[in-house]
Design goal:
Two copies of one chain form a homodimer. The first copy, chain A, is an alpha/beta fold and about 190 residues long. Chain A is about 35% helix and about 20% strand. Chain A has six helices and ten strands, in the order βαββαβαβαβββαβαβ. In chain A, the strands form two sheets. A seven-stranded mixed sheet of chain A has the order 2-1-3-4-5-8-9. The longest helix of chain A is centred in the last third of the chain and has 16 residues. Chain A is globular, with a radius of gyration of 15 Å. Chain A starts with a strand and ends with a strand. In chain A, about 50% of the residues are buried. Chains A and B meet through helix 6 and strand 10 of A and helix 6 and strand 10 of B.
Chain lengths: ~190, ~190
């Protein structure tokens, strides 16, 4: 069993924690009020608003060396709500990997609404966590940890470059829910 | 009832034609061997490989003025299979709209595999055609024509700028099917 450290205690952090807990993993949350947090997990999930990621990198970046660091960000440009606040040929995950060159960055969970992680369902389909990254072993370890509880399934979407497409999906899904064209408890399902 | 002209007689052209035909519309196909084709429909679907779109623009562009022109392209860069052959902040649909300034360009069908249009199902979910465009009336007319047969449903994903995200979804879906992580008869479903 793995030890999982989750930065964030909101809807996403809680729902992601429940997925890992269902698999018998030890889950520790670190809230935004933590001073000098100690990162114990070999898997570290950054379940915080995208704008807060830089602070975590500044404060505990050195502790993340060698660890699997999970980026769940949907870096929506909230001024325009018409695009993402990252380079058009890049992604938040690519930015994080550049900021943490010794961490094993994996994109995951950004295409899942919190409610679908908690329920394990998108409509009648089992919730699929799409992951992307350049470290194959890190992806494999993360996928095992996510699926151990059998509440959700995982598809490896490819290299970290695919985070660009995952963030496009996450963004579109948010805009559709904000416009009430889908609900916050449904969205994109993946059918094999 | 509308008259629909579909460029292309392949899997996508045929399946899209069946969606419109189910609604009682008059559907005409134009094959790649047609010389001096006459475009009769008020809705024109370019169900051809992305590389063939420019030829259609050259040969019949003037006939498309004022018409609803449906771009279904997934402009995959087949040399790398690692991205799209369009500007990273743009889309094939935006390029088409620039090439046909007097047409009413709508992005549609590019997130649907042909089999899911023919069956009306992605797994247990009804097939959703995501559309995007800047001409609200054009989108509304197209959505009515697509849904008249009640075989599939439509969600308006927003302005033509959202074609960027729709093309990201289409591309990712193709890479997943090519890697046999999903089948060519399933893929992304939209659950409301």
């Amino acid at each position: 069993m793995a030890t999982i450290t989750i930065f964030g205690t909101g809807n996403m952090g809680t729902s992601i924690g429940s997925v890992f807990a269902a698999g018998g993993h030890s889950v520790h949350h670190i809230g935004s009020d933590a001073s000098s947090p100690k990162v114990e997990g070999e898997i570290v999930v950054l379940a915080v608003p995208h704008a807060a990621v830089a602070d975590i990198v500044d404060s505990v970046g050195a502790q993340l060396d060698g660890k699997i660091v999970v980026d769940i960000a949907n870096p929506v440009d909230f001024e325009t709500f018409d695009g993402l606040a990252v380079a058009s040929d890049g992604s938040a995950a690519a930015d994080l990997a550049a900021a943490l060159p010794s961490a094993r960055v994996v994109k995951a969970f950004n295409t899942n609404f919190a409610a679908t992680l908690a329920s394990g369902k998108v409509g009648d389909a089992i919730t699929t966590v799409l992951i992307a990254g350049d470290d194959t072993d890190a992806k494999s370890e993360l996928a095992q940890a996510i699926t151990a509880g059998e509440t959700v399934t995982v598809i490896d979407a490819g290299s970290l470059k695919r985070a660009r497409e995952l963030e496009a999906i996450g963004f579109l899904q948010i805009t559709l829910a904000a416009a009430e064209k889908i609900s916050w408890s449904s969205g994109f399902a993946v059918v094999r």
